[in-house]
Amino acid sequence: MLNKALHTTWLRIVTLLFGAALAAFTVNFFIVPQGLYNGGLLGLCQVIRTVLDNKLGIRVTDVDLAGTLYLIANVPLLVLAWRSMGRTFVFKLILCTVTQSLLMTVIPVPAQPIIEDMLTTCLIGGLLNGLALGLILTCGGSSGGMDILWLYLSKKRGVTIGKMGIMFNVCLYLLCLALFDVKTVIYSSIFSVVTSLFIDRMHQQNITVQALIMTKDKSDDIPQAILQAMDRGVTYWEGHGAYTGDDVRVLCVCLSKYEIETLQNAVHAVDPHAFITVQEGVHAIGNFKRHLN
After folding, report:
1. Are 86 and 154 in contact (CB under 8 A)?
2. In this structure, what DSSP letter does residue 63 have?
3. Which of 31, 83, 198, 241 has the fewest beta carbons closer than 10 A?
4. Is residue 68 helix, strand or coil?
5. Could you tell me the domains of the chain?
6. Which residues pair with 251 in a beta bridge?
7. Closest CA to 40 of 176, 156, 132
8. What φ, ψ does residue 226 adopt, rounded to 5°?
9. Is the pTM of this model over 0.90?
10. Are 212 and 277 in contact (CB under 8 A)?
């Protein structure tokens, strides 16, 4: 189902919406009732919501104000993304961000935690949140937040996205430590770590693979089909089949795991009898594009 969704437009949209809904449900049902905080921009909006409520008495009954604050905070970041990133990616970004923000605002937060043990809540919540965000990323979308700014700075200034995210979260949880208590910071950190670990397991765009294609087609049709369908470079050399004695062409392509089906379709459209092998765990160094769409 997931592999099919990756290559079918309407199924991608459905999967993106499901991921955004699951993320909103997880936050409101698991994290907020325990008084914990996400990482990133959403976590900062949750902290601001708590300060407005506890310190200033600004409260909206029956809704979580953090969802509305998150949507407002994303507006300038969405404008930045529109000016600097691909339109298809930005469309998915807006769709996911608006859906998650609105659902976080309207989904009622339980008065009491649905799971009493805080560690269990962090583990289950982190797993579900990682699953949701992993689905969104795998389908070429994003739930917004500071990732937009990190992507922009990485593109323009060469900064490391991971390091920027860690630095922001360290500052956020130091703020939580100053405003709340150590217990809140520890369990919020556990939730964020579990979420990140599960995102990496789900996010197939992070898994680089190498494909070898053996074909008797000696024309440039297959390399051109791969270039047009995937915007991937192709290296090839001439080979010789030891069993058949036939001359073959061997093509080598590095790609992300979620692109395997697209590669297979492009190759077999030219040569239905082409033989393809795929090796995972390849480390690509140099000019290797991580496609967002």
Report:
1. no
2. S
3. 83
4. helix
5. 2-205 (no CATH), 207-280 (3.30.70.120)
6. 213, 236
7. 176
8. -70, -45
9. no
10. yes
CB atoms closer than 10 angstroms to residue 285: 5
Contact yes or no for 89/142 (Cβ under 8 A): yes
Maximal CA-CA distance, the chain: 81
- Asked if residue 217 lies in contact with residue 249, where contact means CB atoms within 8 angstroms, the answer is yes
**Could you list the pLDDT tens digit for every one of the 293 residues in the chain?**
555 555 577 788 888 899 999 999 999 999 999 999 998 899 999 999 999 888 777 776 667 788 889 999 999 988 888 887 767 778 888 999 999 999 998 888 888 899 999 999 999 999 999 889 888 877 777 788 887 887 777 666 655 555 777 788 899 999 999 999 999 999 999 999 898 888 766 655 556 788 999 998 888 899 888 888 877 888 889 988 888 888 899 999 988 776 777 888 889 999 998 999 988 767 666 666 655 55
Q: How far apart are CA 90 and CA 148, in angstroms?
A: 10
DSSP-based three-state secondary structure for 213: strand
AA identity, residue 17:
L
The tokens for 167 are 């630095």
What is the spatial distance between Cα 77 and Cα 125, in angstroms, rounded to a whole number? Answer: 26
Tokens, residue 187: 């369990």
The strand order across the sheet containing 247-256 reads: 235-240, 247-256, 208-215, 275-280
